[in-house]
Amino acid sequence: MSRIVYVNGEYVPEEEAKISVFDRGFLMADGVYEVTSVIDGKLVDYAGHVARLHRSLSELKMKPACSDDELLEIHRQMVERNALENGMIYLQVTRGAADRDFAWPKDATPGIVLFTQAKDLVNAPAAKTGLKVVTVEDQRWARRDIKTVQLLFPSFAKMEAKAQGKDDAWLVTDGMVNEGTSNNAWIVKGGTIVTRHLGNEILHGITRAAVIRFAKEAQMKVEERAFSIEEAKAADEAFCTAASAFVTPVVEIDGAAIGGGVPGPIATRLREIYIEESRKMAI
Ligand code: PLP
């Protein structure tokens, strides 16, 4: 079934959506994005995604494509016009169209695109089976804290994982785990939950922040610090977080079974809490 997408001010059927061949997002990956999950027709952690969008734009000296009120209304229209109950809304803002040049124009009109993807996120099979991951040397650019659309290396790493018959890759530097291709990486050892500290090396996950908050509220011990591949392989549990994955257990790292190769109790509990709280707070 054809979706209604939003392109530069208009709601159109996806087959009719057009952007300029000169859009710098298309030519130079000069753009940023957000993915907001939708549960029961409501937006999860929307304020966090908008705050991070503003940060990404400002780090790249880009202008917002519209006001915050307009952006919320467009998200609502996307849910309504596509009768979206469960899934994601993808939002992309680019610097706009201009004759190809490495120097960007000061006055280009930002490009904005939104589309929906229907998916039963709550009942995703991976929540029960867990994911198998491989580690891949992180060769992305140094500003991974900005959510840009230049996703070629993460795609490459994901394909490498698939080629090995696994689900995803954890990107590593000097033997230390940064994050997954499209998620933040976590381990649990002796009841303590560990995820890499914030910095330019990883995306500041909105789900990561929420899970840290929920874990602390549930009196769980959380450490934000780097951890090695070896430490991860010896962990009691592992999991990843992302808007489109919530909390998803990881049951194998580079061929080593984690927690006996089945989802662990802490990851499972955090997923339940995350879904429960998200349902309550979604707008
Ligand atoms: N890290 C990377 C590289 C990502 O691409 C994503 C999500 O796309 C995340 C982490 C998780 O971020 P969030 O929880 O905001 O979806």
Brief summary:
The chain has 283 residues and is of the alpha+beta class. 29% of the residues lie in helices and 29% in strands. It folds into 2 domains: 4-118, Aminotransferase class 4, branched-chain amino acid transferase, N-terminal domain (D-amino Acid Aminotransferase, Chain A, domain 1); 126-281, D-amino Acid Aminotransferase, Chain A, domain 2 (Alpha-Beta Barrel).
Q: Counting H and I runs of at least 4 residues, what is the number of helices?
A: 8
Q: What is the molecular shape?
A: globular
Count of the domains: 2
CATH class of the largest domain: Alpha Beta
Distance between the termini: 26 Å
| Major beta sheet summary | 9 strands, mixed
CATH fold category name of the largest domain: D-amino Acid Aminotransferase, Chain A, domain 2
In terms of per-residue confidence, which ranges show pLDDT below 50 for 5 or more consecutive residues? none
Tell me the strand percentage band. 25-35%
Which secondary-structure class do the elements indicate?
alpha+beta
The hetero molecules present are:
pyridoxal-5'-phosphate
